[in-house]
């Protein structure tokens, strides 16, 4: 039964214009002043979530995006700052890009944030999806197998560091600790200092491909799954949720039910009618598609359609998906509060183990609209589920 709500903010700044008639994504090169505005925007959203009863504010880590769609390079620094400006809301790492880090530095930084905020930071890791940021920071991304191999070893190191009083690890990519003399003895173990406030560390990871091996690795380490939200707007497919339940069963959770240990991310836009909601939100839907379709996160479109998105003279004639398509498919919950309640209730019925849902708005949505939508959701929808 749904009883906890969060919201994911990928870190987009406010743009002068969005949608198909706005500049193509690759043509955007924002000023430092505009890019730095992401932190004031995050502060405004955090305070809104804190004052309206939301449980978690999820933030995304990304790098080098002069275009302004994902402009937060360090979740943990921002989470510590925001925790001191709010009272109760927790801050989720959605997600730290593990291949862009040394796993011990990430473990140390999270442990510090965990202690400095009194346990209000929720850990989360991912493999990344931007070649520009992962490869530039020295890790493989173009070579998917190499990225997966590195990530899996990093996960081993990370959870040893976070959850064990001392540890060693000797693998292909990491030799921890090295065989050296230290103050008169040979180093054999290393200890994370400080240790996290809460052990074992609760951790989340996006479920994208849903491969058996990837899901089994998550279950092995006690990592929970997030489906939808951020780049992958559009809720959850029954087959993906079933695959996750099956992985839990293989890992020993024989009584696992659909939706257990999952967060499902949904795009929500509330207005006086479905027609008005679609009219108001369509430009945000279009901007989001312009950003993420070339990265492979919009299914059912051709290479020619993706190319047309970078040409304002062709984009309107490219027969691209519309927000009506997404609304009718149920991947976006748009309309009146009753429409949104009905959509959430349907998820609750399909996935009886589901407790956590993220609701939010896509990249391109201005700060004022995000705040208004979150306030309206908290007043008109949330009380039905958080009795």
Q: Would you give an account of this structure?
A:
The protein is of the alpha/beta class and 387 residues long. The protein is 40% helix and 14% strand. The chain has helices at residues 32-51, 75-83, 103-116, 131-136, 144-163, 212-220, 238-250, 274-292, 303-308, 323-329, 337-350, 367-380, 382-385, and strands at residues 4-9, 56-59, 90-93, 96-97, 121-126, 169-170, 175-176, 181-182, 185-186, 203-206, 224-227, 262-270, 332-335, 356-360. Helix 1 packs parallel to helix 12, helix 3 (103-116) packs across helix 5 and helix 6 crosses helix 7 (238-250).
List the helices and strands and how they pair.
Layout: E1 4-9, H1 32-51, E2 56-59, H2 75-83, E3 90-93, E4 96-97, H3 103-116, E5 121-126, H4 131-136, H5 144-163, E6 169-170, E7 175-176, E8 181-182, E9 185-186, E10 203-206, H6 212-220, E11 224-227, H7 238-250, E12 262-270, H8 274-292, H9 303-308, H10 323-329, E13 332-335, H11 337-350, E14 356-360, H12 367-380, H13 382-385
Helix pairs in contact: 1-12, 2-3, 3-5, 6-7
């Amino acid at each position: 039964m749904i009883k906890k709500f969060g919201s994911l903010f990928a870190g987009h700044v406010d743009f002068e214009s969005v949608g198909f008639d706005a500049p193509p994504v690759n043509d955007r090169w924002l000023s430092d002043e505009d890019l730095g505005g992401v932190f004031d925007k995050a502060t405004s959203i955090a305070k809104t979530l804190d004052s309206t009863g939301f449980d978690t504010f999820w933030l995304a880590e990304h790098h080098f995006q002069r275009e302004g769609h994902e402009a937060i390079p360090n979740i943990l620094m921002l989470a510590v700052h925001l925790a001191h400006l709010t009272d109760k809301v927790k801050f989720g790492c959605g997600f730290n890009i593990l291949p862009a880090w040394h796993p011990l530095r990430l473990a140390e930084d999270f442990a510090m944030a965990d202690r400095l905020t009194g346990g209000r930071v929720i850990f989360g890791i991912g493999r990344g999806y931007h070649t520009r940021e992962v490869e530039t920071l020295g890790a493989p991304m173009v070579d998917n197998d190499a990225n997966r191999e590195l990530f899996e070893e990093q996960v081993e190191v990370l959870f040893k560091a976070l959850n064990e009083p001392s540890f060693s690890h000797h693998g292909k990519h990491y030799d921890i600790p090295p065989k050296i003399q230290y103050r008169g003895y040979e180093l054999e173990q290393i200890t994370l200092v400080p240790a996290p406030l809460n052990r074992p560390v609760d951790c989340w990871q996006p479920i994208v491909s849903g491969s058996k091996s990837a899901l089994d690795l998550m279950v092995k380490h006690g990592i929970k799954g997030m489906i939808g939200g951020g780049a992958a707007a559009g809720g959850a497919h029954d087959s993906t949720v079933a695959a996750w339940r099956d992985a839990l069963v293989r890992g020993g959770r024989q009584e696992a039910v659909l939706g257990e240990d999952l967060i499902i991310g949904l795009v929500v836009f509330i207005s006086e009618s479905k027609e008005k909601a679609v009219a108001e939100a369509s430009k945000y839907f279009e901007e989001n598609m312009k950003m993420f379709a070339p990265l492979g996160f919009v299914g059912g479109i051709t290479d020619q359609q993706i190319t047309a998105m970078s040409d304002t003279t062709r984009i309107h004639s490219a027969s691209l998906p519309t927000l009506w398509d997404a609304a009718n498919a149920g991947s976006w919950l748009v309309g009146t509060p009753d429409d949104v309640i009905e959509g959430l209730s349907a998820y609750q019925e399909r996935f009886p183990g589901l407790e956590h849902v993220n609701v939010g708005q896509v990249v391109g949505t201005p700060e004022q609209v995000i705040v208004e939508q979150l306030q309206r959701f908290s007043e008109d929808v949330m009380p039905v589920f958080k009795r």
